Amino acid sequence: MNGGGPKKLVDLLEDPLPGVGTYEDFNTIDWVREKSKDRDRHREITNKSRQSTVALLRSLSDAFSGWLLMLLVGLMAGALAGGIDIAAHWLTDLKGGVCLIGFWFNHEHCCWTSNETTFQERDRCPQWQSWAELIVGNSEVGAFAYIVNYLMYIFWALLFAFLAVILVRAFAPYACGSGIPEIKTILSGFIIRGYLGKWTLITKTITLVLAVSSGLSLGKEGPLVHVACCCANILCHLFTKYRKNEAKRREVLSAAAAVGVSVAFGAPIGGVLFSLEEVSYYFPLKTLWRSFFAALVAAFTLRSINPFGNSRLVLFYVEFHAPWHLIELAPFILLGIFGGLWGALFIRANIAWCRRRKTTRLGHYPVIEVLVVAALTALIAYPNSYTRMSGSELISELFNDCSLLDSSQLCGYKQPVNVSETGVGNSLADRPAGEGLYTALWQLALALIFKMLITVITFGMKVPSGLFIPSMAVGAIAGRLLGVGMEQLAYYNHDWLIFRGWCSPGADCITPGLYAMVGAAACLGGVTRMTVSLVVIMFELTGGLEYIVPLMAATMTSKWVADAFGREGIYEAHIRLNGYPFLEAKEEFEHSSLAVDVMRPRRGDPALAVLTQDSMTVEEVETVVDSTHYSGFPVVVSQESQRLVGFVLRRDLLISIDNARKRQDGVVSTSQVVFTEHAPTQPPEAPPPLRLRGIMDLSPFTVTDHTPMDITVDIFRKLGLRQCLVTHNGRLLGIITKKDILKHMAQIANRDPDSILFN
Amino acid sequence: MNGGGPKKLVDLLEDPLPGVGTYEDFNTIDWVREKSKDRDRHREITNKSRQSTVALLRSLSDAFSGWLLMLLVGLMAGALAGGIDIAAHWLTDLKGGVCLIGFWFNHEHCCWTSNETTFQERDRCPQWQSWAELIVGNSEVGAFAYIVNYLMYIFWALLFAFLAVILVRAFAPYACGSGIPEIKTILSGFIIRGYLGKWTLITKTITLVLAVSSGLSLGKEGPLVHVACCCANILCHLFTKYRKNEAKRREVLSAAAAVGVSVAFGAPIGGVLFSLEEVSYYFPLKTLWRSFFAALVAAFTLRSINPFGNSRLVLFYVEFHAPWHLIELAPFILLGIFGGLWGALFIRANIAWCRRRKTTRLGHYPVIEVLVVAALTALIAYPNSYTRMSGSELISELFNDCSLLDSSQLCGYKQPVNVSETGVGNSLADRPAGEGLYTALWQLALALIFKMLITVITFGMKVPSGLFIPSMAVGAIAGRLLGVGMEQLAYYNHDWLIFRGWCSPGADCITPGLYAMVGAAACLGGVTRMTVSLVVIMFELTGGLEYIVPLMAATMTSKWVADAFGREGIYEAHIRLNGYPFLEAKEEFEHSSLAVDVMRPRRGDPALAVLTQDSMTVEEVETVVDSTHYSGFPVVVSQESQRLVGFVLRRDLLISIDNARKRQDGVVSTSQVVFTEHAPTQPPEAPPPLRLRGIMDLSPFTVTDHTPMDITVDIFRKLGLRQCLVTHNGRLLGIITKKDILKHMAQIANRDPDSILFN
Q1: What does the record list as coiled-coil region(s) (chains A, B) (predicted)?
Q2: Which of B15, B249, B538, B653 is the most buried (most CB within 10 A)?
Q3: pLDDT exceeds 70 at position A410
């Protein structure tokens, strides 16, 4: 008989202790356990719903809470994205001048509100004054005014950059960077507390505006994904279902990633595919549908805010009319090769630079670094109109097709001398390049070199920084250059064999804007290794299936070329740089090792630390726990048989023992720890046993020692395991954790296995 | 010492016997083993590629063979789809008349080739003669001619239907139906030999044309998926990589399903999502990209064949101009409810009818059944012009927006009496319905009832039959009716509160064509339970993000309403009807049972049939195998310890023993069967042992008896297992197969567990 009386044995299964079943920071969750917990919860609600109307209503509200949450995420992310767009637009214009009728108007808006609508050029109105006009006076135009504007531009750029980096440092260090590598890791099951919290959200939103406005070579697309995920994470707290379950919350975060891309580009379908292809780890089909819903809500919220003032959903709206010709695939593939090479080069250079920042004294002065880069960027960017304008404006202009009335330098073609000469006088026909275009080409070439260099050192600084826009800008410039080159080649040599038949004089055969778009896709593809989602995003921008083939040819080439230099995209490279425990789902495990080669303990190591099911005292258990740093312990029948019973987590064990010692009468160091269903008979004078079956995982995953590692890795990935026990002929032999696998993979790839920092 | 001398022990690991590692018909493959086999193969090629240039080239060609295969699948499926379209178009027109300048021209083509292009109506030209004109003479127009045409229509319909059913019966019984339920099952790992073979392909292609042309209420979209999968399966035989590996081949088949939908609707992105959402089981991201490529190739192949003669990629090209208003969401949701109700009703009715066909004498006369239904269809369909035309023509017409010059009855509006009365005289403004429209509405209402009834008995007959077009037709009719109703309501009551502000007189505020499209999506969604892919397909048809919200509202409502009556879509229902072993990936396992409740042997049953690793003779093994019908046997250390060593498949065991008895000297019934690495020492006079470690799976999957079934089901689904062993404290306790799980699920749902036919 064990001590009866008033003592009540705490049944842990029924009413878990606070803390049991939760995770520590920088740890990996157990997907199987979380999903099982959710199914239990769901089952309970379903069973109860048959009993009363209130419970039925609760069950219904539970079923619809997912949709409600998606709606809220869409609305909030869409609204925030709209606000960011408007604020960034205003601050960017503020670098150049100010609106006299109200400093809070941006350039375009200022001229809208102006009553004088007679002038042709809408971007010139008396209400908008450049800093030189304001400071020196209206009449002064010349070198001095230029210098004043130049200095004011640098001043504002430095101010914005300084504010951005200071705010990030002061309030939320997690707000820096693009956030996508961390979100990928979080979605794969890692826990980084505060990474998606409210301070990060507020700081990231504000500093993103500042960073974009400072003119640094960065975009807002990646950070928007982070912002959307923060929104989702915060809104999850409103619903118990998502607050308490790490796996369910990650479903919502997957959808939020789709929302982020949807508002960044106005491409809801592309956003969903981006989340599916690039970011998500666990993506059940239910999530697909909900992501799509959230992405649509966000896109339409953004459109009703109308930050671009053109009622367009998409960031770069383009409409091409000319079809492309099969021969053009050659230059498109060339652009793909360029994109792939640039992607591979950029990743290497950027990672090398970031590693230098991590390991040398450079990393100690983030504020100075940002200020120096911002000053450098502003200094070099101002004189060249293509680098002075913001990245998205630049891309917009490069994507655009020239119409006859276009005043842009890029459309500085010579007017046909005689309209009748070219037949019907097709206004869009190919024309010879004029002076303006040649100047534009030179400036673009310089801008290309500048963008390529500055982006390498910008991405990874301690300000919010996205990579989509700079990558696309590089590609768009290269594409436009090639496009104009092709156009001129065709114009002057339309009798060449390759142009004959489709490029007759006076016809519009080559669209340089399309080349810019293909180039942008190729470069973005080279850097991020996105494929389908990239093509679909681009498809949503143009709205025509016609241009899918060029886009696909370029992104496919780009991916192949880039993969030849290294299979990692920029996000995976940053994940590895930071040592996050991320098990890439896309790459196959190629090596032929077996589970026995990877498991701990290795040959010669001391035996695995195990607990027995009913023959250890509290003290003995505590000794085992204290003398090791493992996060969990297998429970076996006895030390001799090594037959596996279950698995218990260190954290749960410590909390339970601690709680029992405090709350449960009679539990002392000599009390027996019992994992079996029925406590063994003990002498009557013995202290009551501590029953811990409730915290033990009765269904630990096991593989045999002969299991090939490729299968084991597959199991880890697909089921989202944290650890797996290894048996041989039914006896427990060792344990494999996610970290062991990652270390093993690092070893195979000749990398430092200790670069994997977390479990 | 075991018998040495010239006897060579066959090392099965190095050079597997023919047959070992293959599967029998109507069995489930082991995904883990197949994928592992492929990784081994890949590893070998990669290792060899470092040795010589030839091997390097082989490795490269191996890497690109997947893309080449995709290209071929896309080309072949696109070409076949084009051929089917052209042939079906011609045969459908042949029911009405014949072209005098060449009987192989269809109606439209016949009038194109005609020189007289003066007449306004392109579909009336002297070269095309109806059967009455041909038989009775040109002058005769009246009741007699009508009857002649009517009879000829019925004659051709019966002839085509008869040919279709006879050909299916004679050459390929698998060619009947839509094929999607079977393809879903095959993709989940089931083997149905010949289902995707060349005879099925040829027969299905021909009979599909005949069935569609016969005027039966069926479409060609589902069967096109089957055709594309047949193409893929046949082309797989060209590449060893895909021929020999069931898992790799299923990757290609997943892509082929995308190709099928891509050519059916001209919607490549929608096709890929359809494959992902609806059909596929195992869909790695690599497949996503390749599917997309194949779908695009197929779509462009189809476009270059240009079967519709309009250079359009999509089947129903629509271009709406009027925006929709928020209030219109109410009728759209109404359409969703209609779609959901119809979907649920259709599934019940169709399944009940198909079950009756399976169980009663009705099933013995498939030819008569088809003929009766075809006669009935033709008899009723001919008098009503909306049922006389083919399903896709009908949908096209219903989707279309009316322009002023439209001669269609559906556009029989009254012309505005005085153009100046309505202001600018907006040609597209809402108008009052005229006589023609009222007639059309009556005919449509009758067509709706007819289509709803006839589709229930048509789907499932022994001819190729798709469900997409009939479902969409039902929805489009309902939508158009509601749309015209709304339009007239708004026209006559534009001062009502709900119409005020956006429906002023003379404005074009309601687009009945849009209602038809939304209705079509709702009904298709209710029947198939597609969600994202359906919206994306519709998005690709219209090309505008504008209409996604109405489509989504309708499909979402439709799915919810239909799910309330039963969670199965039509394909899942047919899978269950046929007893295929399909483990639905979308539905959660809700019950709280444990592995021990599902495993065999049950409590009270005789113990599990096991083999021991080194203490059984060939005869004893054969006795165990013969006395049971299990498809595999666990191997344990000894009967007493029940510690698990591995798992061996019945088929492999039989082939190996048979082979050893024939080929290997000295192996007799008393030879010991040895599964260990080193044969135990035996008395010198003993016959040589039969070593079978090579055929044993050294890494069988195990779960503990306490594992909740929801986790077990998850493991089965995600890893694609065929069986899993159950242990308790390290001892083998039982086995769970896929069939056991499906039976258990059937039991929970109060269905007959013996309806699961295959393993």
Answers
A1: none
A2: B538
A3: yes
Q: Which of residues 274-333 of A touch B (CB under 8 A)?
A: 276-277, 284-286, 288-289, 292-293, 296, 299-300, 313
3 state SS for A437-479: HHHHHHHHHHHHHHHHHHHHHHCCCCCECECHHHHHHHHHHHH
- What one-character-per-residue DSSP string does A710-730 give? HHHHHHHHHHT-SEEEEEETT
The answer to whether the peptide bond before residue B601 is cis (omega within 30 degrees of 0) is: yes
- Of the candidate ranges A78-92, A232-246, B271-285, B722-736, the one whose mean pLDDT is the lowest: B271-285
Determine contact, residues B376/B154, Cβ cutoff 8 Å.
Answer: no
Q: What count of other Cβ atoms lies within 10 Å of the Cβ of residue A648?
A: 24
pLDDT at position A702: 93
Measured in residues, chain A has a length of 759
Radius of gyration (Cα) for chain A, nearest Å?
Answer: 31
* Domain end (from A530, A548, A576): A576
pLDDT in tens, A185-201: 999 989 999 999 999 99
With contact defined as beta carbons under 8 Å apart, do B298 and B77 qualify? yes
Regarding whether B511 and B600 lie in a shared domain, the answer is: no
The verdict on residue B377 lying in a domain is: no
Asked if B32 lies within 8 A of A714 by C-beta distance, the reply is yes
B637 with A729: Cβ contact below 8 A: yes
CA contacts within 13 A on the Cβ side of A651: 12
Could you tell me the pLDDT band of residue A159, with boundaries at 50, 70 and 90?
very high
Beta bridge pairs of residue B673: B616, B690
CA distance A590 to chain B (A): 6
Position B379 scores a pLDDT of 93
* Alpha-carbon gap, residue A116 to B554, rounded angstroms: 47
For helices A512-528 and A468-492, the axis angle rounded to 10 degrees is: 140
Residue A37, in any domain of the structure: no
For the segment A107-134, the average pLDDT, to the nearest whole number, is 69
**Domain final residue pick, A542, A576, A610:** A576
pLDDT of A424? 41
d(CA B230, CA B224): 10
Does one domain contain both B354 and B479?
A: yes
CATH number at residue B548: 1.10.3080.10
| Residues of chain A neighbouring B641 (CB-CB closer than 8 A) | 730
> Which residues of chain A from 240 to 279 reach within 8 Å of chain B, CB to CB?
268-269, 272, 276-277
CA distances for B63 relative to B49, B462, B700, angstroms:
12, 41, 30
Between A344 and A677, the more confident residue is A344
Q: Among all residues of chain B, which has the CA nearest to that of A586?
A: B285
Mean pLDDT of chain B: 85
User: Sheet containing A731-737: which strands, arranged edge to edge?
Assistant: A731-737, A723-728, A702-704, B702-704, B723-728, B731-737
**Tokens 């029948």 correspond to what residue?**
A637
Residue A342 lies in domain: 330-412+438-576
Structure ipTM: 0.86
Give the single-character DSSP code of B589.
P
| Main-chain phi, psi angles of B97, to 5 degrees | 180, -165
Kindly state the tokens that stand for A198: 């409210």
Rounded average pLDDT over A346-355? 95
Residues of A in contact with B642 (CB under 8 A): 730
Optimal mutation site among A262, A598, A699, A721, interface B, most CBs of chain B within 10 A: A699
Residues 6+ apart with CB under 8 A from B330: none
What is the rounded distance in angstroms from the CA atom of residue A304 to the CA atom of residue B546? 13
Provide the number of structural domains found in chain B. Answer: 3
Contact A293 B556 (CB under 8 A): yes
User: Which of A195, A248, A245 has the alpha carbon at shortest distance from A225?
Assistant: A195
User: Is B33 inside a domain boundary?
Assistant: no
